Every structure is written in C-alpha cells, then in structure tokens.
Amino acid sequence: MFSSAFASPRHGQRAGLSHLYRQVGVDTQAATADPHGLVTMLFNGFAEAIAEARGALATGSTQQKGNAIQRAVRILEEGLRAGLDLKAGGSLAQDLDDLYAYLGMRLTVANLRNDDDALAEVLRLIQPLADAWKAIAPQVRR
Fold first, then answer.
1. Are 26 and 41 in contact (CB under 8 A)?
2. The model scores a pTM over 0.85
3. Number of H helices and number of E strands within the chain?
4. Tens of pLDDT, residues 91-126
C-alpha cells in the first residue's frame, strides 16, 4: 500500500532525508531567530544558493543550476529587497535596493548565458555587505 510512495533508490532516499533535515533545521532557526538573525540567514542562504549554482554549472547540471539561481533570486527579492524600508531608510535603503536590483539582473544573465563570471560577481558584491551585517551582531543584540 505505501511501497510506491517510498520506492526509490537508496541514494535518493538519503538525499531526500538530507534535504528534509536541512529544511527542518532552517525552519527551526527561523522560528527562533531575532530580526538580525533572520537577515543573516538570508545572506547565508543566498551565498549557498550561488555556490550550488556555480557547482552545478561546472558539472553541466542545467536544472540544478536553474533551481539554485531561482532560489537566490527569491531570497534576494522576497527576503533582502522586500525587507527594505525605502521611506525611512533614506539613501542607504535606496542604494541597497539598487544593488539588489542589479544583482537580480546579473543572476538572470548568469542563468540565461551559463555565465560563471556573473555568479562570481554577484557573490563578490554581496559578500562585504553580508560580512558587515554579521559583524554588527554583538551591537544589535545588546
């Protein structure tokens, strides 16, 4: 009765379980994180998605590359960019919005053209921002 639902090669089961455990871990972290921690998780997830896309590009896994880039775009648009307060944030918020828009465009180019240089550029541009965000954690949590 349940055999068809669980019938998959052993490796596929492990990969599925690994994804499930990872998702549960992320959900648990998100449920207990403060706002600063949530943004840190977004930066980390973004970097992981870019690394996965670059790895998939190197191995020729088009679907995995596309899925990873799509995940990076969603983190960028629905997390980082959507969290900006353009009215209260002034020029800093506007600059971040412009940066995130540019990164989204470069991710689209990377996906369409299989452009590893564009993926590397996106990571290079966001990494200092992510590092600065992580560095202020002790001040924010006081």
1. yes
2. no
3. 7, 0
4. 999 999 999 999 999 999 999 999 999 999 999 999
